[in-house]
Write a structure and sequence with these properties.
Number of helices: 14
Distance between the termini: 45 Å
Largest sheet: none
Structural class: mainly alpha
Strand content: under 5%
Shape: globular
Helix content: over 70%
Radius of gyration: 19 Å
Length: about 280
């Protein structure tokens, strides 16, 4: 209808909504194309908030493609705009997204700092679900840094908090499974993985990452054949959805150590840390 009317704003809004749906359903190339089309014509966003939301969303899609430098750069722009607009609700989401990327690339201290900012923003906005989500992401950092006592408290509090919500960040299941695996509670880890796989049905990106965590659990269980099976199933999904950078030919290594960073990505990440994160 927007195209028939020649109304670029209607077309942009529809394109952005379709990109969001595509990203959830694993149509990753279409999602990225849609967001980039919108961001190429920022004058047609209804508000600056909509522009910033598109930047924040495309940052997460770049992260799915393991294009981490671009992810950090886009999220940094979104954060700057949300700050100028004084939107703590959106800032909480953006900072959790930034913390997630930092965790995946092994910048654990910076990830913790980013999620702490998210928690302050969520508290200011009265955004209870983000406060619960932040518990998981902080627990993941603590777990990966080896502080299992703190991780246990955070993950347990997060699991209790999720009971209040029907819709939530499905990565919480992956994080809980990772904690119990690293804590040596393999039966509980397996239960958490199974819950995560059930919840993620229909969401290919999340499902495949959950399978990679199941592959790590298989290694801990001493089941190399199960590791191969889970890894190959995850690979098939990533190949089908265009996320070739996430395919693993060898056994899956620990989260946070999967992606060696090139010089350009390191520069983008560390520039943001120096200019923005260290000031907080």
């Amino acid at each position: 209808m927007g195209e028939k009317l020649g109304d670029a704003a209607i077309v942009l809004n529809a394109t952005q909504n379709l990109a969001t749906i595509d990203s959830l359903l694993g149509r990753n190339a279409r999602a990225l194309e849609g967001y980039e089309k919108c961001l190429a014509r920022p004058e047609y966003f209804d508000t600056r908030r909509d522009h910033a939301k598109a930047l924040s969303n495309v940052a997460m899609v770049y992260g799915d493609f393991a294009r981490f430098g671009e992810s950090v750069a886009a999220q940094a722009k979104a954060i700057k705009m949300f700050e100028e607009l004084a939107l703590p609700f959106n800032l909480a989401i953006a900072w959790i997204g930034m913390g997630d990327v930092f965790t995946e690339i092994g910048y654990f201290s910076e990830a913790r700092a980013a999620v702490e900012v998210a928690r302050r923003c969520a508290a200011e906005a009265g955004f209870g679900k983000a406060l619960v989500t932040a518990l998981f992401y902080l627990g993941d950092v603590a777990c990966l840094q080896g502080d299992m006592g703190e991780a246990r408290e955070l993950v347990k509090a997060g699991v209790a908090g999720l009971q209040e919500y029907e819709v939530y960040d499905l990565a919480c299941h992956e994080i809980a499974a990772r904690f119990y695996r690293r804590a040596g509670e393999l039966d509980e880890a397996a239960r958490r993985v199974a819950c995560g796989l059930t919840a993620a049905e229909g969401f290919p990106n999340v499902y495949a990452r959950m399978l990679q965590e199941r592959a790590r659990l298989a290694i801990a269980e001493g089941e190399p054949a199960a590791e191969v099976r889970c890894r190959r199933e995850a690979n098939a999904i990533f190949e089908r959805t265009g996320l070739g950078a996430r395919v693993r030919a060898k056994p899956v290594v620990e989260y946070g150590a999967m992606f060696p960073l090139d010089r350009t990505t390191k520069a983008a990440v560390e520039s943001f840390i120096r200019k923005s994160l260290e000031k907080r």
